[in-house]
Amino acid sequence: MASGGRAAAVGAEFDVRDQIVAFKRKLAPRREALKRAYVEAKDHVTRGVDVILREVAAGRGVVPELDYRDIRNNTVPEAIGPSIRKSGCAVVRGVFPAELAGEWFAEVGEYLETNHYEEREVEKRSLDKYFSALKAGKPQVFNVYWSKPQVMARQDARLAETRGFLDRLWKYEGVFNPDRQCTYADRVRRRQPGDKTLGLSPHMDAGTVERWIDPGYQKVYENIFAGDWRGYDPFDATHRLETREIPSPAVCSMFRTYQGWTALTRQGPKDGTLRLIPIAEGIAYVLLRAVQDDVDESDLCGAAPGRALGVSPEWHRDLIAGLVSIPEVLPGDTVFWHTDICHAVGDEHAGSEYASVIYIGSAPDCAKNRAYLPKQRQAFLEGRSAPDFAAMDFEVDFQGRATEKDLTDLGRAQMGF
After folding, report:
1. CA distance linking residue 241 with residue 135, whole number of Å
2. What is the pLDDT of residues 2-29, one digit of tens each?
3. CATH code of the domain in which 257 resides
4. If residue 285 lies in a helix (H) or strand (E), which one and from where to where?
5. Residue 2 lies in a domain
6. Would residue 305 count as lying in a domain?
7. What pTM, to 2 d.p., does this model score?
């Protein structure tokens, strides 16, 4: 298992060109099948993008939406599950009361201000290189993990119920328990109105070159690399725990069924927020694109170790055409997207209020995730940065950070206490 951000070797220093060449040569006997598969996957993506653009032009949503109360009452419309499995994403409305989310927004702001976060951050900014190949300048993402609102949101039973519903859309038997979560501590976004620095180019997380050369990922994508991309199910967890990520700050070494966040403020398409390509099989197109004859034998369309996996106009224009903003969300709404979904952040926040979220994905209980918990638990107790992230350790002496006494029984279980 990857040892996270504190590893002696940083992912960007790995030279994997020989492994890429070896992988491509191993695929050489299937060259014709892979060409045909790419043409088919490209056609699938193109048709999917056409539908997305038509729906958007007609003012209809392309990201499935459901209400938390329907999860609570077991009244979710039957069409929602297939819709999420097709698009790879969902907005779940009203998981938290709007008033509570607003209080959390104010409390996080106070936490950062009281502890002089911004002055300290300038000194340590160079430690976080994960998005250095993307367009971001100064991020408005704050490297804090243990404020009370973050800890309270992660351990809330309503969020656990929401994630359980979404996780049951996977084929999970024998791999993970959808009804129990492991905490994966992540950061906070507080994007100021007018900000033009946080824009992130389209990308995927959870591994870059690993998706081609890691033996675990090769099993996950076995059908795609065999030329049978239609036989690939993005929601089949069978080999997902076998993947091994190249260690680097902010490369997730847990298994997340979905990345996600909880909105603390209202934010809409013009507020510099999340954009998605809602095509769950889009990963097949990306993987097959890199093994075509016009890509150098030692290259994977620019993918580099220890960086986000860029989806670019140069290599992936058919897919990138489907990039759309999520619908307007309100305080207390949550957004989730499958770990293989391409996503981005709008270049400019053209609104008049902060656009703020707490990043909380879904990391169901399984062997891989349980193995991460002891080092994360120690980081929590000491106020250090979460293990997968750059070791900025701002919160060691922060006033008002959450401690073990703030954990509920559910929170303790999710943290592995």
Report:
1. 31
2. 333 333 344 445 789 999 999 999 999 9
3. 2.60.120.330
4. helix 282-289
5. no
6. yes
7. 0.93
